[in-house]
Amino acid sequence: MSTPRLLLLSSSAVHGHGYLEYAATDINIFLNKNRVSTVLFIPYASADYDSYLKKVEAVFSKWGYQVEGIHKHNPVEAVANAEAIFIGGGNTFLLLKTLYDKNLIKPIRQRILNDGVPYIGSSAGTNVAAPTIHNTNDMPIVYPPSFKALNLIPFNINPHYLDPDNNSTHKGETREERILQYHGLPSEYDVFNVLGLREGCTLFIDGQVGILKGINNARLFIRGKPPKEIAVGTDLSHLLTDTLRTEKKLTP
Amino acid sequence: MSTPRLLLLSSSAVHGHGYLEYAATDINIFLNKNRVSTVLFIPYASADYDSYLKKVEAVFSKWGYQVEGIHKHNPVEAVANAEAIFIGGGNTFLLLKTLYDKNLIKPIRQRILNDGVPYIGSSAGTNVAAPTIHNTNDMPIVYPPSFKALNLIPFNINPHYLDPDNNSTHKGETREERILQYHGLPSEYDVFNVLGLREGCTLFIDGQVGILKGINNARLFIRGKPPKEIAVGTDLSHLLTDTLRTEKKLTP
Ligand SMILES: [Ca+2]
Ligand SMILES: [Ca+2]
């Protein structure tokens, strides 16, 4: 793997903060350090591209960045020319299907892994940075041609990670139960480790270095081990080694 | 459509009730009326078939029914010989993928629609009775060859339907937002109406007659109309007419 530069937010909205606000410092340092002046925004997780673009432009322009909406251009050319890429949240299935429909999976992956183009993802945009979207919380409202995603890191992510609510009478699975169901699949399925990013978590990756940033702890699920709390500031570089990736018999 | 006989439970577990207990009377009347003595149980939504079978056997044997686990037989033959079919909850993606892997979609559908074999579903087992699983809450831990399901009714179901928690600081989508996202898909997608079954809801269908049973209200989402509360006892037969089904361009 070459030099991916990633800033993966659990969500853009965090209680008590404006849109992307909790991560403003990290985003600004990330883009400045990489001398970015224009960000290519991909709004495919939503159905209303134009109003989504306006929302994103309002924040990035305040910070001094230009934003281009990919839907206003030839998408493959826009990716080829991008200085930086931001994929926002919405529905992960709709996002992934649209990336496939527009033949963008390989081009985006190559720009990030080969050319070192900085990538910011939030929620669904963070899900698709992982090898697969098997650990999204979203409703499967459309059928993508595969659950394989951009595969920029060797583990899956569960954004909006949520602790069990002990006062709840609801009998649907907790988030932890859902991830353990995934890790408990029959042995013919190979699965990935899962990093549960609570709202307010940001995963920062620069080449071989990974660090948990943000304002909230994460929860790490290594298959066969008890889940583990990860404090803000923790070095997660060991998760980036390929030995943790197992995809022998991954379904598409 | 011929004579489907369906009892679709939102969930087997309901706060304050034992396994399947809230629906005991409805299940017993349903099976007795149809002169069932043995129920074919399909545990594919779970990874541990044997312990799941034991749990189901414990309850049905108390009621005087035999239970056969499909995994102990040739599955296609077991379906061909079934007096009644029960598909339990777990993970909807794992369930649907396994039904496809074992070539059971058509045989089960034919037994129910052509031969009038009574069908009981719970949670994931209720999701797969619908045209598609686009409205499951489950995590997409495996990739099924399609989201199209048994298609026994002309609308989708969201089991474990949950009202927004006004005290929550969590920013993930509410259930209603997720269903409205589905209905707000771009016009090239054709979508189904969605019946949100709160835990404790049971949808009873006998041919052209549909009634909401159980101990909790449901919430109905007709595309383009405001969501509507459905009280226990409401006649839902009008939902069974084919005019509500739109599947022009459904993705697989
Ligand atoms: Ca989402
Ligand atoms: Ca489930």
TrEMBL record, chains A, B:
GO terms for biological process: proteolysis. Keywords: Cytoplasm, Dipeptidase, Hydrolase, Protease, Serine protease. InterPro entries: Class_I_gatase-like, Peptidase_S51. The keyword Transmembrane does not apply. NCBIfam families: PRK05282.1. It is found in: Cytoplasm. It comes from the Eukaryota. Gene3D superfamilies: 3.40.50.880. Hydrolyzes dipeptides containing N-terminal aspartate residues. Its EC number is 3.4.13.21. It comes from Asbolus verrucosus. It is an enzyme of class 3 (hydrolase). Belongs to the peptidase S51 family. This is dipeptidase E. One of its GO terms (cellular component) is cytoplasm. Its main location: cytoplasm. The keyword Hydrolase applies. GO terms for molecular function: dipeptidase activity; serine-type peptidase activity. It catalyses: Dipeptidase E catalyzes the hydrolysis of dipeptides Asp-|-Xaa. It does not act on peptides with N-terminal Glu, Asn or Gln, nor does it cleave isoaspartyl peptides. PANTHER family: ALPHA-ASPARTYL DIPEPTIDASE, PROTEASE S51 ALPHA-ASPARTYL DIPEPTIDASE.
